[in-house]
Amino acid sequence: MIFDIQRGVAEDYKAAKESLAHRFRPAAVLDVRGPDALAFLQGQLTQDLRALAAGETRPAAALTPKGKLLFLARVLGAPGGARLLLPAGERESALAHLMKFVISQKVEIADRSDAFVRLALYGPGALEFAVPEGATRLPEEGEVATEVLSPAAERESLERALELAGSVPLTEEVAEVLRVEAGRPRFGQDADSGNLADEVGLQDAISTTKGCYVGQEIVARMRTYGRVNRRLVGFQFPEGLLEPGSILILPDEAGPGKVEQGRVTSAVLSPLFGAIGLGYAFRDVPVGGRLLSAADPSRGAVVRALPFSE
What is the pLDDT of residues 226-243, one digit of tens each? Predict the structure, then answer.
């Protein structure tokens, strides 16, 4: 699906850039508790969690033994263990994966998704928003200036506080435009189980100093002896939007035997940047390089660095 809000700067887009906007994010919340909780997660996730303090948040990923992505998460330190925050669509697969490896360890895993709401705040006014008692303020993530994790029972009081603060609710369309502008990949759309972690630009989620974890050997080998063949990039579409899934080729290969050099995964019309998207470009295609649509060589994509900037 292509999102278009360029027909007029939407009120919520403007608020997200200039004042305060918000969105309740569908989310999964998994609690991992017990004497062995952090040691267990240390062996399962890419992030170093040994010194994770209560209330501290770190990005992380889970990998297969072959280094492919299983899920992305934010890890929130909590007394007696940690709390994993994931997109709602990753709940079942993440829970099943963790439960498979928890046998014989002093760890309990509980699905607390229904007990919390996850509120994303956008704009320069986000840090001034007062967090209700019992809620946790989380650091920025891509386009999100700050996030609030609150007990679900407090949602109505949160909504009243947002109204008093003059916050504008974001539509899904505008939220998607802001996400693409920030270059934040969505699992299941811009990244999936076919991707290596380094292809997706998850450097902040991967520790280079921690001990063994599932998939570490592949990550270390790639960083020591080579580099990934493709990487997540931004695309600008001078001739108009290309649909997600569009295959991109080099300009001199528009014909039989064409070789894929890129692929579009997200596409939006941004009021600020025009027709843009996310996707993958092969490693020899530089920033500023132009690729063409394999289906329609009259239309192309120019590789841009992430996040998009003026």
Answer: 778 999 999 999 999 999
